[in-house]
Amino acid sequence: MTVTNCTRASRFILVGLPSALGMERVMYASVFLLYLLCLMGNGLIIIMVSLDRNLQKPMYFFLSNLSLIDIGHTTAFIPKLLVNYISASNSICFYCCVIQLCFYFLFGVTEFFIITLISLDRYLAICHPLRYTTIMTSGVCLNLAITAWFVGFSSILCQVIMIANLPYCASNIIDHFFCDVGPVLQIAGGDIDVIEALGFLVTMLVVMSSLLFTLISYLLIIFTILRMPSTTSQQRAFSTCASHLIVVCIFYGSVFFVYLRPTVKNSSFGVIKSVSVVNAIVAPVLNPFIYTIRNNEVKEAVCKALTCAHTHFAHGHTIRACI
C-alpha cells in the first residue's frame, strides 16, 4: 500500500545490541575492545604490506584490500553505536542511517569479491606455479581489485536509492543495532516488494556465484595438494587453505542466515541480531589473525618492523629505510 501525505521521520531509534539484563556495559565494552583489535590487526596488515617489499605480492595485496574492507565495515556503524551508548541516546538521523546502510553494504558486498580473488590467487599459485608470476602481475591485481570495488558499489546503489526514497511514517524504531536493510524495510511504508526482490536477487547472484567459485578453487587446490610428493609442502599448503576456509565458513554461514530470506515484514530480528554480531563485529576481528597466524612471511615482516622501530627511536632512522 502506498503511503501519501505523511511527514517522513527525521530520526530513527535503534533498539541496540542484544544482551542479557544488566549486561549492557559488558556488551558495549566488549564491542569497543573488538573494534580496537579490528583496527590494530587489519591496520597492521595494511602497513606491513605497504612497507615490506617481501609482502608486496598478489596474495598480500588482496589481503590488504580485505583488511581495508574490514576496517570500513566496522567503522560504518560501531563508532555511532558507542557514541549512542555514551550519550544514552539511540537515535540516528534519517540521512545518517541511509549513509550507514550504504557503506555497510558496499564493504560487505565487496568483501565477497575480494575473498573470491584470494581463492583465485591461491589456486593459481598452487595449481599453476610456473605461470603464476606471468598471470598475476601487479597491473592485473590492481584491475581485479578495482573491478571488485566497482561491482560492489554498483550492486547496492540502486537498492539504497530506492530505500532512501521510501516513506517512513508509521514507526521510527529500527529493531537492530545499526541500519540494516531488513529492519529498515520493516518500518517502511509504500511498496517494498520490488526492493526485496532486487535485494534477494543481488544477494543470490553475489553470494552464490562467489561461494561456488571459491569452493571450486579450493577443491582444485586440495586435489593438487594431494598429488604433491613432499609431505612438508602438503602440510604448508593445507595449513594455508584451512585458514582461508575458516574465513569462508564464518562469513558465508552468517550471511546466509541473516540475508537469504524471502520477506522482512513479519520477520523477527532477535536471533538475527545475535548472528549479525558474528558477521559484522567478530569476523572482521578474526580475519587478520586467521590469515596470518601461521604465515611466516608476515611474522618476519612484523619482527623486522619492530626491530626497525627500535632502531628508529635509537638512531633516528626511518622505518621505511630499514624495511
UniProtKB/TrEMBL annotation:
Transmembrane residue ranges: 26-47, 59-78, 98-120, 140-164, 200-226, 238-259, 271-291
One Pfam family this sequence matches: 7tm_4
Record's keyword terms, sorted: Cell membrane, G-protein coupled receptor, Membrane, Olfaction, Receptor, Sensory transduction, Transducer, Transmembrane, Transmembrane helix
Membrane topology: Multi-pass membrane protein
Entry-linked InterPro entries: GPCR_Rhodpsn, GPCR_Rhodpsn_7TM, Olfact_rcpt, Olfact_rcpt_6C-like
GO molecular function: G protein-coupled receptor activity; olfactory receptor activity
Domain G-protein coupled receptors family 1 profile: 41-291
GO CC list: plasma membrane
Compartments where found: Cell membrane
Chief place of localization: membrane
Family: Belongs to the G-protein coupled receptor 1 family.
Protein name per its UniProtKB record: Olfactory receptor
Source organism per UniProt: Pantherophis guttatus
